[in-house]
Q: What sequence folds into this?
C-alpha cells in the first residue's frame, strides 16, 4: 500500500523490480548466453537447407521495413523428437549467417520468487534489444520450451510466475518496429503449452523431422573426422532410425576411448602431461575407422546404457 507521498505505491514497485533485475543481472551468465556470429562451436555444423531457410526467414522478417504491413509472428516454434538437432541447428544457422543469439533454457525461466520468471525473460529481451539498437541482428532462442512455467499440464504446480510470464509473452506478440525481437522456441511437444500463445499470427510452428538424406548429410559431417564417406554411409544405413544425438555421442565415445588408452601411460597428471596428451590426440590418424569399428563402437555405447 502507498504512503502519503506515494499514494499508489509506485516507488515500492520500482524498488522491487530493480531488486529483481539486479538479482538476474548478477546471475545472467548462468541463465543466459550470448552466442556471437561465426562461433567456433557451431561453424562447421551442417544445417539442412529447408531448416535453415525457415529459421532465417523468421529472424529477418521483423527487420524488414514492410514488417508493419504483414506483421510477422513473434515466435517460431521448432517442434520434433528429442535428439534430432533442433537447438544446435537453430543456433548454427544464426551464428553462420551473422546473427547474435541470446540463448536460454526454459528451465531457467522459473525462479524461486514472485515475478522472477517474467524478470528473467525481460532481461533476455533487454539484452537482445541492446544488440538491435547497436545495428546487430539479434534473436532469442529458448530451449525445451515445454519445460517452461507456461506449461498447462495439470500435474505441474502453477504459481504466480506462470501467470506473469504467460502474460508477458502474450504482450510481446504486439511489439512492432525496432522494439520487436524474433524469438525461437524449441520443444518436443506443444500439447501442454498455453494455447492462445500458439494461435496463428502469434506463433509459427515448424515440425522438424529430417529426411533420411538430410540426416545422412548431418551424420557424415559429425563422423567425418574418424571415417570415410562410404564407411559412414554403410554404417548409417544400419542405424538410420537412431537420433542424430546418438551419432554425436559415438564421436565423443571414440575420443574418450583414445584418452583412456593414453592415461594408462601416466601415474601423475600435470600440465606437461596434459600437453603430451593433446599432442598424442592430435596425431591420431583421421578417418581411420572401418565399418566394423563403427559397429563395435555403437554396440559398446548401447551396452553401457543397457540397450542391445
A:
Amino acid at each position: 500500500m502507498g504512503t502519503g507521498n506515494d499514494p499508489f505505491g509506485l516507488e515500492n514497485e520500482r524498488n522491487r523490480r530493480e531488486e529483481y533485475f539486479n538479482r538476474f543481472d548478477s546471475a545472467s551468465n548462468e541463465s543466459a548466453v550470448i552466442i556471437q556470429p561465426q562461433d567456433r562451436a557451431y561453424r562447421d555444423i551442417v544445417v539442412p537447407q529447408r531448416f535453415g531457410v525457415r529459421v532465417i526467414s523468421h529472424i529477418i522478417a521483423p527487420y524488414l521495413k514492410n514488417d508493419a504491413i504483414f506483421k510477422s509472428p513473434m515466435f517460431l516454434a521448432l517442434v520434433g523428437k528429442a535428439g534430432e538437432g533442433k537447438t544446435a541447428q537453430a543456433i548454427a544457422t544464426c551464428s553462420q549467417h551473422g546473427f547474435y543469439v541470446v540463448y536460454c533454457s526454459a528451465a531457467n525461466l522459473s525462479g524461486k520468487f514472485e515475478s522472477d520468471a517474467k524478470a528473467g525473460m525481460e532481461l533476455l529481451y533487454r539484452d537482445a534489444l541492446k544488440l538491435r539498437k547497436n545495428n546487430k541482428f539479434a534473436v532469442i532462442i529458448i530451449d525445451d520450451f515445454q519445460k517452461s512455467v507456461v506449461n498447462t499440464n495439470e500435474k505441474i504446480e502453477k504459481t504466480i510466475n506462470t501467470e506473469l510470464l504467460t502474460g508477458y509473452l502474450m504482450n510481446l506478440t504486439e511489439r512492432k518496429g525496432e522494439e520487436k525481437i524474433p524469438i525461437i522456441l524449441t520443444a518436443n511437444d506443444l500439447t501442454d503449452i498455453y494455447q492462445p500463445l500458439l494461435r496463428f499470427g502469434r506463433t509459427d510452428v515448424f515440425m522438424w523431422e529430417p529426411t533420411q538424406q538430410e540426416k545422412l548429410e548431418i551424420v557424415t559431417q559429425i563422423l567425418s573426422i574418424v571415417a570415410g564417406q562410404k564407411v559412414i554411409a554403410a554404417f548409417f544405413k544400419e542405424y538410420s532410425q537412431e537420433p542424430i544425438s546418438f551419432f554425436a555421442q559415438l564421436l565423443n565415445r571414440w575420443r574418450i576411448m583414445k584418452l583412456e588408452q593414453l592415461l594408462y601411460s601416466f601415474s601423475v597428471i600435470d600440465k606437461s602431461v596434459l600437453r603430451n596428451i593433446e599432442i598424442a590426440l592430435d596425431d591420431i590418424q583421421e578417418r581411420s575407422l572401418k565399418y566394423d569399428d563403427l559397429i563395435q563402437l555403437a554396440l559398446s555405447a548401447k551396452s553401457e546404457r543397457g540397450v542391445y
